[in-house]
Amino acid sequence: MEDQIQNLVTRKNNFLSKYLHLLLAVVCTTAFFIHESIDDVPKSYSEVVNKYLSEKEKRTELLNIFKNKFEDSEEYRAYYQQKIITNEAFEELEEVSQNISFLGFEDFQQFIGEFGWALGLFLYALFNFINTYMEPNRSRKGKLFLHFTLITISLYFIYWALYQYQDFEKFTYLLFSIITSILIAFGVHLIQHKRYKLIKSYILNHRDLIGFILKNTKKESEPEMWKVLKNIKHERD
């Protein structure tokens, strides 16, 4: 029995078992926001785009000179007529795009893609938060921290989806990532700490109970007692 307690303490003080769950909690939390810490495009891409825009501007200047020179030609009038038709088609496209857009998203499908998972996460976390709060649970406080953090994350993205598709500053994502990481890490720590204390209590109670049984069992009943003790296991059918 003492060996069991010592093994439990050793596992608790082991670096991996002590900090791995906290590391996983932080990774899981920051996974929601880590993409905001990455540049939208690499620097090389921006340089190529700027070069293209610069060359395109030069081409446009030369094209305008060319069009002005042949403005009275039959070919130019045909081009200009087609340009009017093309512009009208583009305006029609803009109108249709505007009609199918939803809350700043390109369409309702894109909105559901951004909003749906956050709503599902919110309902899941809210259900577990209420369920955990209603049930007597020794590690309830830590679980409430976890569920509350998930509720906060889901509300964050729900607000983002409903906020006319306006993105937040990178600092906002960083700050929110730090706060939620701390909350989840603290919640996991509470759960693990309570779990350790609970297991240790079970072991100590088990030891005291067996000691009491051994002390008060009659000699002729010892074989039956040992038979019962051997059947003790973590899960009973």
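[next item in queue]
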Amino acid sequence: ISTTHNEKCKGKHFTWSKPMSHMILEILAEEALKGNKPSSTFRAESFIKVATKISQKFNVQCEPKHVDNHLKTVKKEWGILTKLKNKSGFGWDDCLKMITISNDVYDEEVKAHPNHDKYLNKKLDMYEAMTIVVGKDMATGNYSKSYVDVNLEENTEEQSISIENEGEYEETSKGKETSFSSAQKRQHRKRNRMYEDDSVEKLSKKMGDVAFAIQSLSKNQLDVNELYTEVMKIEGFDEITLGDAFDHLVQHEMLAKAFMVKNANLRKIWVQNFMNQRSYRPDY
């Protein structure tokens, strides 16, 4: 969805091209599925990974702060899309991932908001990836935090726990070696052990979740040969049309996976909609 634009960061501009915008969404979608999005945003490691890959692929100097800034732009675009989809007179084609409106409504909307033209009666590129990357954040309202905020929150929580434990230890070290103080020490040590056991259990669960996500991804790899076979055997379309549909699905892996789970009738409908979308042009 994103087009080329400049984003300002400490007096410097970093230009995001459309391929770069697609790449950031693809990588962050993978990171989210791997469990590297613990709350409302991603871990710092994910931003570093994106910045490194974009720098290498496009021969630019991309930094994590540039990725963070661009993600905020993506979230704003997602907010616009959500509002448009819910407006009266606006339809939604889930197969083509496209907001559909009549010519009259189109003219009225573009007249009031010229920049909304790119969202209307056009297939929304990377919509599925955007849903994974920012969709949940916008729904819960937790999209104002940056990756720096998340890391600070995690570090603050760890420091708070550490300080509390130190305070408990100092308290039990004071006073005489009475039976009461000894009991207190044992109680504090027990609480510390319980905390450690709980931390280990939580860490194990998180590692298990990540492993499960990675395993699920590996099992759900797209078989291009099988996709080609299934597309080309659809009846009622010429070979060139089916070939174009296959090429489109290969370029959009999430669409391809969704296509493969549809039955024969739904696949045929999808190809028909694909043909209509290719030839669709709003009349003025």
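[queue empty]
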